[in-house]
Amino acid sequence: MPEARKTGILFSKLYSFACFLCNFEDSHAQIGQRGYSRLVYCNDPDNPVQVQLKYRGNYVSTTKYTVANFIPKALFEQFRRVANIYFLVVACVSFSPLAPYSAPSVLIPLLVVIGATMAKEGVEDWRRRTQDIEANNRKVKVYRNYRFDEIKWKELRVGDLVKVCKNEYFPADVVLLSSSYEDGICYVETMNLDGETNLKLKHALEVTSHLCDGESFRQFRAVIKCEDPNENLYTFVGALRYDGKEYPLSIKQMLLRDSKLKNTEFIYGVVVFTGHDTKVMRNATDPPSKRSKIEKRMDKIIYILFSTLILTAFVGSVFFGIETRKDISDGKYRRWYLRPDDAPVFYDPRRAPLAGFLHFLTALMLYGYLIPISLYVSIEIVKVLQSIFINQDQDMYDEETDRPAHARTSNLNEELGQVYTILSDKTGTLTCNSMEFVKGSIAGTVYGRVMTEVERTLMTKMREAGDVSIDQQGPDGDSDDSRKSIRGFNFRDERIMNGQWVNEPNADIIQKFFRVLAICHTAVPVENKETGEISYEAESPDEAAFIIAAREVGFEFYGRTQKRILLRELDYETGKKVDRSYFFYSYSQTVSLANSSLSEIKLLELVPREYELLQVLEFSSSRKRMSVIVRNMENQLLLLCKGADSVMFERLSKDGWLFEAETKDHIKKFAEAGLRTMVIAFRELGEEEYKSWEDEFEKAKTSVTADREMLVDEIADKIEKDLFLLGAAAVEDKLQQGVPECIEKLARAGIKIWVLTGDKMETAVNIGYACSLLRQEMKQIVITLDSPDIGALEKQGDKEAIAKASLESIRKQIREGISQIKSAKESTTELGPQKSAIEFGLIIDGKSLDVSLKKNMEKSLFELASNCSSVICCRSSPKQKALVTRLVKNETGKTTLSVGDGANDVGMLQEADIGVGISGVEGRQAVMASDYSIAQFRFLERLLLVHGHWCYRRIAMMICYFFYKNITFGMTLLWFEAHASFSGQPAYNDWYMAFYNVFFTSLPVIALGVFDQDVSARLCLQYPLLYSEGIENILFSWPRILGWMSNGVISSIIIFFVTTKSMIPQAFRKDGQVVDYGILGATMCTCVVWAVNCQMALSINYFTWVQHLVIWGSIGLWYIFLVIYGFLPPTLSTTAHQVLGEACAPSVLYWLVTLLVVISALLPYFFYRAFQTRFRPMYHDIIQMKRLEESEIGNSAELPRKVKDKLRHLTERLMHREL
Question: Is 46 annotated as a binding residue?
Answer without folding.
Answer: no
